[in-house]
């Protein structure tokens, strides 16, 4: 079987999220299936760092180019012009489209598979600019794909309901995850015990309600700091909210860095908090569990599906519910130990190898 992956995500994403998913699937299949499966990533100009680490058995057509904004349109034009030529020459059985597009570059007779990672744009349009084309492009891509992979059962239900997709056209394949336990030299960690939040903070990520919950419980704010990793520096709005809640820069801080810093934070955090209103899958709770960090999280969307019984859940719309969950875990060492043990067990349900092999089952189904 010949499986190709198009240029879309690799042409603009250096690392993270979707490109990590596609790369891991292709890389594991190229390694696991020997000579029976041939995987080919076609992106004449790519900016993606993962492709530099591709297995020799994974064919990558293209060159690594600088990720310069002014050349983005040029890269896209070159990719859209040359990629169909390479695909036509290679003649894949399956084209796995790596993001949403109104049209396909699949050769005649080639089946197409699309992965839908979430339905955030459809459910929370107020958090995206009016000019964002994602909803329309996703709708078109979903309509013409031969089969759609959803990263959770919750995402699958939302897709079927919101875009009227026939259930038999869909499958669920959970993400894997792997954050390496990277050593770091003298990371600048907070001096006091701290609670950890990871990722972007705006809109449906719900960081502001977490801030309010943290500020509302004196026994927590007096004894713990709140650390937000990633997502850039605090906005003027966030800084104003922190001040209005009576919190200081020492109590609430933003840190950036690489996986080494994030690993150190997971190891040292007293608690990992995931208050998002909606996630298509949600990898950070699994990352925290892999470092023996107790997890509390939202009880909405796919998050309960991912964490199982290995986290304390709360209603992310209610500040008191978040605060109660914080207190319940912080004040109970026995519960923390139980969450650590259940987390160690839970992470075994997810791996990139399993994700790749389950994806291969979908490819074979589509080709029969």
Q: Which stretches of 5+ consecutive residues score pLDDT under 50?
A: none
What is the mean pLDDT? 93
| Sheet of most strands | 7 strands, parallel
CATH topology of the largest domain: Rossmann fold
State the end-to-end CA separation. 11 Å
Strand content: 15-25%
Large-scale geometry:
elongated
Radius of gyration: 22 Å
Helix content: 40-55%
Topology pattern, helix = H, strand = E: EHEEHEEHHEHEEHHEHEHEHEHEHHH
Give the name of the CATH architecture of the largest domain: 3-Layer(aba) Sandwich
Keywords:
14 helices, alpha/beta, 40% helix, seven-stranded parallel sheet, 368 residues, six-stranded parallel sheet, 2 domains, single chain, Rossmann fold
Task: Kindly describe this structure.
Helices cover 40% and strands 17% of the residues. Helix 1 crosses helix 14 (352-367), helix 6 crosses helix 12 and helix 10 (284-290) packs across helix 13. It starts with a strand and ends with a helix. Helix 11 links the parallel strand 12 (295-298) and strand 13. The protein folds into 2 domains: 2-176 and 351-367, 3-Layer(aba) Sandwich (Rossmann fold); 194-348, Glycogen Phosphorylase B (Rossmann fold), CATH 3.40.50. It is built from 14 helices and 13 strands. The longest helix is centred in the first third of the chain and has 19 residues, at 72-90. It has a 7-stranded parallel sheet, sandwiched between helices. A 6-stranded parallel sheet has the order 10-9-8-11-12-13, sandwiched between helices. The model has no long low-confidence stretch (mean pLDDT 93). With 368 residues, the protein is of the alpha/beta class.
